[in-house]
Structures are given as C-alpha cells and as structure tokens.
Amino acid sequence: MTLPPLSLRARIIALTAATAVLATVAVGYTVAAADGDGRSPESVAAPGLTLDSAPGLYHAARKGNVRSAPYSSSGTGAADGARSRNTGLSCDRFYASGRSAVCIASHPGISQKTKVNVLDRELNTRKTVVVGGIPNRARVSPSGRMVAWTLFVSGDSYASSSFSTRSGILDTRTGYLVKNVETLQLYLEGRRYHAPDVNYWGITFADDDNRFYATVATKGKTYLVEGDITTWKARTLRRNVECPSLSPDGTRIAFKKRVREGAKNPWRLHVLDLGTMRETPVAETRSVDDQAAWLDDSTLAYALPGRAKGTSDIWTVPVDASAAGPRLLLSDASSPSMVVAGG
Amino acid sequence: MYLAVGRTRPSDGTAPDRTPSAVRPGGRRRLTGTVVALGTVSLVTDISSEMVTAVLPLYLVLGLGLSPLQFGFLDGLYNGVTAFVRLAGGHAADRWQRHKLVAGSGYALSAVCKLGLLLAGGSTPALSAALAADRVGKGVRTAPRDALISLSCDERDLGRAFGVHRAMDTTGAMLGPLVAFAVLWATVDAYDAVFVVSFCFGLLGVLILFAFVPGREAGPARPPGRAAATLRETLRLFRVPAFRRILLAATALGLVGVGDGFLYLVLQKRLALDVEYFPLLPLGSAAVYLLLAVPLGRAADRIGRRIPYLLGHVALLGVYVALFSPVAGWPLTILVLVLHGTFYAATDGVLMALGGPVVPSDRRAGGMALLQTGQSLGRLFASVGFGAVWTLWGMDNALVLAAAALGAVLVLACVLLPAAPTPAAPAPVTAPEPS
Question: What's the pTM value of the predicted model, to 2 decimals?
C-alpha cells in the first residue's frame, strides 16, 4: 500500500489534482441536489382555502407540502388525492381540528430550532412558538382551542448521544404556554412519583379542552396517563401504551403497543376501550410508528414507510378487527387529520 | 536495556518536509511535517465525521421517518466495540510496524461508511452497521496515529506536537456542522448531498495521509534482536513501572470524570436553558480547547507534563464547584465552558505526551491504545455510574459525590504520576528483558 517515494512536488501536484476532483464531485452533487430536488414546486395556496371551505383529509404530501383532499366516509372510505388542494404550507408535522391547525417545521442549524406555528381557520399563523428539537407529534383538541406537540431532543440525558422527547401545550384562548409538560404532578400507579428520567410524548385532547391523554415513560417502561390541565396533574391508567389518540366520541383510545423488544417491528396498533379497559389489536399487522388519527368513530388513519426511501403512505384500518383489513388511502403522504364539514 | 526515545527517533533526512527539530532563529524548533500532515488529516476527517453527526438525528427522524430512540441503546455496545478495536489497532500497528497503513485503513473505513449511510436507505440494521463500522474505523486509527505523532518529533516537543494536532482536530470538529448545515440549507434538506460531501472530505483525509505522512521505510526501526510485538509483549507493558503508574492514574481519573453530556445537562438545568441552545455548549468548550491546546502543550514541554495534566483535572474540579456556586446566568456559562475547555486542552493531548515517551517505540501504538482505552473505559463507567446516582439521589448529590471522588483521585494521581520525565533529561526507560 505504501506509495513509491515521490518527490514532494509530485505529491503536492497529485494531492491538488485529487482535491480538485473531490471538490468538483462535492459541489456538483450539491448543486444537482439543490436544482433537482428543491423547494416544493407548488408553494402557492389555492385561493380562498380555509378549514371551513375545504373540509376533508389534511395531510403532508411530498416535501411536507400540506394539502386537503376530499374524503368520503361512505362505504370503506376513500380520499381523492387528484382533487386535493394546496394550503401553501410546508410542515414536517401537521394536524387540523375544529377551528385551528398546527404546523411544525424544523429549521436545521447549529442550534436545532423548530417552529410550532399555530394557525387559525384561515390557516394564517396566529402564534409561533420556537422550541429546540426535531418534530415528532402534533395535535389539536377537537374544538381547536388546545394545541400540543412533541419533539425529539438530544443531549437531554446522561449519555450524550441518546434521545428523549419533550412535549408542550398551548392554550390558544388564554395564550397560556407550557414548553415542557414534565412539570406535571405525576401519580404512577396511584403514588406520587418523581424521577429525572420522566418523559412525555403523544398528547391527545378530550373535547372539554382540559382533559388529555399522553404517554409517559420512566425507567424503560411506558404508561398511558390521563392529565388535567387545570389542576396540572396526571395519573397513569395502564402500562405499555404509546402515542394515544382519543376517538371523536371520547370512548376509546387508539395507540401503538410494544409487542417486541428491539428495533425490528416493535409496535402494533391497538384500540383501548376506556369504559372496560379492554384492548384489542386492529387488523393492521405491520409495525406502525405513528400517532393514529381517527377519520370517524370507526376508522383509523396512520402513516407507514412508502416504497421509496424516506417516503410514507397513509393507510386506514377499521377499528373493528373483524371488519376489512388495512387499505392504502394516499401514497406519498403523512400527518393525516380529518376536518369535518361544519365542524 | 533499551533506550526508548531520542535514539530511535526516525532520523532519515530524505524527506525535506519532516526534518525534525529544525531550529529557527527564535530558538523554537519547528514542528515536523508529519505532525502538521496528521493534523490536517484529522481536521479534514473531523469535518467529514462531524457533518454526519450533526445531521444524523434529523436525517433519521425527518429524512427516513425512523425513531432515534431505536438507536440510543446501541451506544453502550459501540463503546465496548471501540475499546476492543482500539487495542487491536494499536497492537497491529506495532506488530507489523505499519502505523500508517493501520491508521489509513481506519480513516478509509470511516470514509466509506459515509457512502454506506447513503446506501443503507431506511433499513435500521444497515444504518446501524454503517454507524458501527464508522466507529470501528475511528477506533482502529486513533492509537497508530498518536504513535506516529509521538515518533515523528523530538521528545522535548511532544506536548506542543499533540497540542497542534488536537487544535487542528478540534477546528475540523467545529467546522463540520457548519459545512453540513450549509449544504442542507443550499439543497433544501438533501441529506444525501451531506453524505456525499462528507465522503469527499473523508477521502481527502485518506489521500493527505498517504501523500504526506511517512510510511514504513521511515518508521521506527525495531532494534535488532527484538521480536515483533506479540500480544503478550504488549501486555508486558504493565511491567514498566512508569507506564503502569500513568495508566492507573489516567484510568482512575477517567472513572471520576463525569461525562460531557452530564455536565452540559447540569448546566442546562441550572440555567433553565432552552433546548435549542443546547448544541452551542459543546461548541463553547471546543473553542476554548482549540485556543489553549498549543500554549498548554508548550507549557507541558517546559515544566513537565504531569503538572498541566493534574492542573487540567483541577479545572474539571473547578467546573463541579462552579456549578454549585451562587454564580448564575452568563457568567456561570462562560466560567464552566472556559474551565471545561481548559480541562481538555491540558489533559487530552498532554496524556499522550506524558505516556508516549515511557513506552518503547516499537510498542508505542499498543501502549497508547492501552492508555486511551483505560481512560475511556473509566469514563464510560463514570457516566453509567453517575447517571444511576443522579436517578437515585438527585442531581446535586451526584455532583457532590463527583467532586469528592475527583478530589480524592487527584491526590492519588499526584502520588502515582512519576515526576521524573522532564524535558531536560529524557528519562531512559527500562523495558523488561525479553524472556
């Protein structure tokens, strides 16, 4: 492997040439990537588009471009991607409900800033919360008053390269903002609990704009918690529940349950009946890493990795496991949320 | 009887860029070209690796839709693998006297891994494999590279040589994220472009190494009659009293040196710092490290290396104390970052300058690997232990315990570390007679 002894000059010339080649490759690839794969071609919003005028399935399409697709819930339910309309928004995570929406967009940099934009029914930004971390989950309460988000943060733990989550809540009516819900008084299996490793993610709101459900993790275990914003308390209800999502009628929670240790296909979507506390798996057998969204009281939508690298598709499955299996709703899309006409 | 340094220092004058100890009019000896070349290799390689480190979380979560929580648990495993590989790399370099080849393979492996990340797509096992191979590359190259530095220059200049190398290395580490985010910004989140640019930097590092770092023909000649380093021979280094003491001190100090992540976390809790500013803290430490590495290395050459090494740990103790003091806000941040950067500048390269000369030159890479592994395994246990103490007894108690333990071990290290090797009289080291 040792090069034959070359003169210093020859080595300098060779290295200069090699540097030029490498620089050309690096710059050329970067320029090509900037040209070919650049900003979303349609960043202009469809005129007059509001949550009222364009009810349907909101989703983040290619490059985070948020669109609203007509959705018919009759029969098995189908979304018309071809007739979807552009909101002009670009978001890593998006969720709309009632009279507001939330768009989380990351701004990569030395300090990892992420903007949580809270939007009104005209989809104009009413408030922006700047937080650190990488977008993970976004939710709006059924009325649209409460907004919640979860981000991945690193360096928040003992081992420098490990990750934890950080969740925040904003009350759009009062402007009350909690950037980190870890201040909640937590009751773990009935007892007041303190630990530095407590971590919350995947908040979902009830229709009273006060009660909420979320996942809390501590000592390697996850729990479903029921929280109360007024009293700022939370109590665990059940083990092994992640990313809960409350049904529109408020009686059931869809969640991902860890069924396998390790990183290979760890989760399965389940539905928990809050009245009986009985859980049932849905007909989706693939591992779903998403906070499912209810399209109506009997249908869940969620994202699964798509065929091309880095893409995802939105699938639906009936909550009744005895009904039909999962169906592809929209390809190349994520962050599903249902905005009901007149809702 | 075997004289480690000075005599075995490579002394061929064929390559004009690496004439050792050319005296300049000011009386300061010039650093050899090898040190500068290795510094440049590290600078370019660190740009490459820190580019990937900076964007990897974003790439995993937003680019691929994976959960980064899946990758965290592998960290402990990686650290174990790295320790083993580092020892193997150091030993292989000694055994075949091919420091440049072994170090170069490590650099090349890490460079190729950047393309591996690109090709792995969304497959978790493939991504994990690429990341693991990258760590292996890093582990393999460290000890032979440091051995090359220590063998390429006069023993009296070792502190400065390692200071220059570490300063260049840190410069690369600070530039990497800037380059990565510039690429991301220019391409609107094309992570593949970041990996390709990172690969180009990595490959450039390998090329600089092969073009400007002297290889085998200029390497340390094994004294006649000495067998190639076997594993047993390398382990026999433990019998060298000076080496044993330095290794013990470095490991013990590693065991009480709470991890960086832990310190930044305490700082963040004390300042109620927003998470978005969290990544700026290591940059602050690195900037101080970068500025002080050369001056402290020079000081180490002049006053003896154990003094800055011990004082550096006093600076670390100062960090713990500062975190308890009533100082708050920006003054606290600046105080902690300056002390923490000083700790690194006074200990990281200086340990190699301290330990290098007591190891025979044909066991140098293995000896350095032992030192580095002792220190890093110590730190690994420390971060696990302090994490547990924090969880059980809370942050403040963990910090008190850390400070007390560090104080005690510092006293022990003062006793352990040999005062003998001074720049004026390079101490000849007695290696055990081959049996």
Answer: 0.82
